[in-house]
Amino acid sequence: MVGGGPAKEPSPRQAGSPAPGPAVSAWVEYKNAKGRPYWYHPGERRSVWDKPDELKTARERAMETTAWREYKSGERSYYVNKETKASTWTMPADLKAFLDTIPDEPAPAVPGRAPASPASGAASPSTPHTPTFTQTAMAVADSAGTGTAVVRPAPTQARTSTPMYATQEEAESAFVAMLRTKGIGAHATWEQVLRDIITEPRYKALRTLEERKATFKKYVEELQELEAAQREEKLAELRPFVLRALQQNGGLKPYASFATFKKKLERHPVWRDFEDESQAHALFEAIRRDVREKDAARKKSVQQHNRSALSALLKTIEMTPMTLWQDVHRTLVESEEFRRDARLQRMPPAEMLALFEEHMVSVERDAERALATREEPVRREREVRDGFRALLQEHVDAGTLHARCTWASFYAQVRDDERLAAMAETHGSSAQALFYDRLDQLEREFTVHRREIQAHMRQRQVPATQPSDWDAWHAACCADDAPRSVSQLPVRVQRALFDECVYQAEREAREARRRVERRLRHYADDLRYAFKHAHPPLDIRASFDDIYEQVRGMPEMQELVRMDGGLDAARGAWAKYVRRQAERHADAPDSVPGARARTEYADLDDADPDRKRKDPVRAEDPRAVRRRTEYDM
């Protein structure tokens, strides 16, 4: 038999009385528990799902030459195109026209009586691939049974229902038995297995897809646990022999790699007992883990001994918070106890230094306790500084100390105060340093207030560009919708913030004017350069109004026209250009009687001190390096 059957012992059923024909076929038709037909050949002792060619009619053999295939869903037939995957319940017109050209002939008849039970191995073959069809066809097929390829109607018989099981456990056992029969491994996935088992009768032993997935997952997990247990048992058997082989080859270091492990054992007979390299790697990891644990325990014991011995030695040395490690280390090395202890001699210097630092903590703590008795003078100086800070705060509250105050103006106010005189007798921060610390705080607070009040004024559109705006400014600060951080500011602080905003506005206006003037100058210089390269050349005897139409398309002229005062700058650029051109023509040799060209000055020596520039050039003319634009006029 080819493949596994859909039931344990299917009851054979003949397809009916043999049809009249020229010959009787040796094939016997049966149906499985789900009513699906298959054919068994007693002489060859094999069974197939597909109808044998010798039982097919001429029309059925002709259909196999096309892309269409006929399938059965219950009592209805549907047709599937194997190339386009399209499906239909009615025979396609092209297929019908082709089959109509094939004359009908009787198919070979199957035996009129089949054995009650076919020979051993006559169970139904493995389920072939289920065809893909449209959603409607699938719905009908699911309601009527699994669709199977049919080339001619089989005689009707009683439909066998899906096997039923008395309990859920029996159903799960049948499903698991199907998985075992299919040889499903421990690392298979549900998507891979589904294609192989979906056509098996025992696939429907469990009613829902969730139950099938859960049973499959449990089955795979049990296989994985079994494999893991078998691997662990195998490793446990090999471990003593591997350890003995390692001892014969020098053992295994805690830092050894798998390559070293393999090199030590690959020529030993025990290496051939491993099933694969992954099993050897797993045993290597376990052995190395044990080696590392033993090595760590040994190191920990040595470390505890060294710490105890070194701590005892450190307590015998007199140290202060300023004692250096190099001095203590020299004393330790020269001690008799250190020389007698071999383990202490192998103690890493980093661990010795760390223990020394721990010991220094206790030494410093003792020094601090001794220093606490001499802390009174320091406390008095701290009180003096606190008193001077209180003096600073008093002047802040009075308004005489603010963010724009200077040390000279403040000193004139407090020169006779006792708290200032007391600061002269203290060490540490001076009175002037404390003053500047407080001034930094005031400047930070002033900046925060300025940002808040400027945001409020921008929201109310209240300007602060000149001193006459103070009344509107003050009214906006006291308005009901003003933030508390603004309305609760003292009037003197509001006035100081107003003066600061006015100063900033004036400075920004000056900067804006300078930027505009600088841009006008740059565009004017560029325009003069454009005048020089204009084509056709400009007549320097013409006025600006005469040449305006000729130059109005220049990008530099357009930029100037768009700016305030740009037209006046353009007029000035034209006047300067005309003046320079006139001076150039006036300096030309042809215009001055007796003058000579520049190339005729070869008799002059450039190295003559009288011809050298008196002052070095500090910066290159930006107009000489600015990128120029070519104009096509």
Catalogue the unreliable spans: 1-22, 112-161, 594-604, 619-633
Q: Biggest sheet, open or closed, and with what strands and sense?
A: 4 strands, antiparallel
Helix-residue proportion: 40-55%
**Which strand order does the major sheet show?**
6-5-4-7
Shape: flat
β-sheet strand percentage: under 5%
The termini sit apart by 97 Å
Q: Enumerate how many helices there are, as a single number.
A: 23
Instruction: Note the quaternary state here.
Output: single chain
Radius of gyration: 53 Å
Question: Based on helices, strands and strand pairing, what is the structural class?
Answer: mainly alpha
Return the string of H and E elements. Answer: EEEHEEEHHEHHHHHHHHHHHHHHHHHHHH
Mean pLDDT: 77
Number of DSSP-assigned strands: 7
GO cellular component, one term: U1 snRNP
Domain FF: 168-222
GO molecular function: RNA binding
Region (Disordered): 1-23, 104-132, 144-164, 582-633
Please explain how this structure is put together.
Keywords: Coiled coil, mRNA processing, mRNA splicing, Nucleus, Repeat. Residues 110-132 have a biased composition (Low complexity). It is found in: Nucleus. The structure is a single chain. The chain is flat and about 130 Å long. The strands form two sheets. A four-stranded antiparallel beta sheet has the order 6-5-4-7. Strands 1-2-3 form a three-stranded antiparallel beta sheet, with no helix packed on it. The longest helix is centred in the C-terminal third of the chain and has 42 residues, at 491-532. By secondary structure, the chain is mostly helical. The protein has helices at residues 58-63, 93-100, 135-144, 168-181, 190-197, 209-248, 258-265, 277-315, 325-334, 336-340, 342-345, 349-372, 376-398, 407-414, 418-423, 431-460, 470-477, 484-487, 491-532, 544-551, 555-562, 566-587, 622-625; strands at 28-31, 37-41, 46-48, 68-73, 76-81, 87-88, 148-149. Helix content is 54%, strand content 4%. Among the domains are: 27-55, Ubiquitin Ligase Nedd4, Chain: W (Single Sheet), CATH 2.20.70; 57-101, Ubiquitin Ligase Nedd4, Chain: W, CATH 2.20.70; 170-230, Arc Repressor Mutant, subunit A (Orthogonal Bundle); 379-505, no CATH class; 510-586.
